[in-house]
Protein: Carboxypeptidase
Amino acid sequence: MSVRLAFLLLCCCLLAAADPLRVSTADRTNVASLPGLDGALPSCLETGYVTVDEDNGAELFYYFVESEGNPASDPVLLWINGGHRCSVLSALFFEIGPVQFVREPYDGGLPRLQYHPYTWTKVASILFVDSPVGAGFSFSRDPNGYDVGDVSSTLQLTKFVNKWFSEHPEFLANPFYVGGESYAGKLVPFLVQKISEDIEAGIKPAVNLKGYLVGNPSTGESIDYDTKVPYAHGVGIISDQLYETILEHCGREGYFNPKNAICSHALNRFSDLLGEVSSAHILYKKCIYVSPKLDDGTTGRKILQEEIVVQNRRPPRPPMDCNTYPNYLSYFWANSNITRETLGIKKGTVGEWVRCDEDGLLPYSSDLGSIIKYHRNLTSRGYRVLVYSGDHDSIVPFLGTQAWVRSLNYPIVDYWRAWHIDGQSAGFTITYANDLTFATVKGGGHTSPEYQPERCLAMFGRWISEKSL
Structure:
């Protein structure tokens, strides 16, 4: 690390430490500790905004968490979230960030946070972005700014990258990667394609783009969904008889577009049986939600009106042992005025934070189509790629992901084998030419780091360091 850069990074943390919560400069806020966390963060956190649509006044909100190793040289990972306009706090708090919620009955106060021992910030700096506009704390001053889709929101992210690195030139030399899961896996290769085109066009600043990673990713192809039937059969959710009926009367493709009555009846039966398990992880319990009242047996503390914003879309409360219970806690944490002040949220921009826009209140166009061609183009041009799949996900089963990766027809350089942690298999992997790696995460679900954090940190840490899994 150069003396100048070391001084700049030290100043960042010292400025934040001068105030136990935050220091703001323009559209950036340096945060030393988060509400609900006992003690300081393990590395510097900067939050802020980048304008990506000047005409409508649309701004994307970000959280930049520096590496706990050597932020001057460690890779920088841009991470975007999947789902229906889901806030990137989902990734930061539930998957790969340095803090997570303490799982305890909610009593009406501010949910508590604790350090996450398997955070990916141990080996990389991560730039978490609320995208598209309208996700999390990103906003538009003109309502027209919320009318975006795959293509327009990705182009806005390209502008975001250009502007962010212009304001953070000290990280330009760091290896740069882009990552995302689920629906974001469809956007990541298109975003990397656009960034690479900017680099080739000589647009400054030029980032040190090295590659990307996607987990249980959508592709825009039917293969994402057609493999649900063989997957469900393989893991014992549907019977031989039903599987054979579907194959005979529906064909091997287009399972969800029945062409006759027998196929339609069989697919209805398939849906009923698949509905008996949790789709994101078939071994986890299906959660029954209850009314959004305070948990029984709590101290009965109430949040004062001045401490939290309006609660028009307060989520239903799951049982505390449900995997989604932290999602419930995130609503109260993010809607606390203390939290918003600490993060530097601009007043009047977001009335109520919701984890995802499940109700579809904001317009969005899925206008990108298939992205397999971008995977093929980027891998053929030397960018490193990691495609990973939790092997217990029935939303985007690993069978389909494995199939499209194989369809690129690259020579195998490291045949299918187990990868290990402490002498035990943590999943299986195969490596192709052009630096393309496919890996399964044993016991992983639709968002693998949420279910298998230790294994995913090991996988990411080895891959980002350009080591064999």
Q: What stands out?
A: The two ends are 28 Å apart (CA to CA). The CA atoms of residues 56 and 143 lie 8 Å apart.
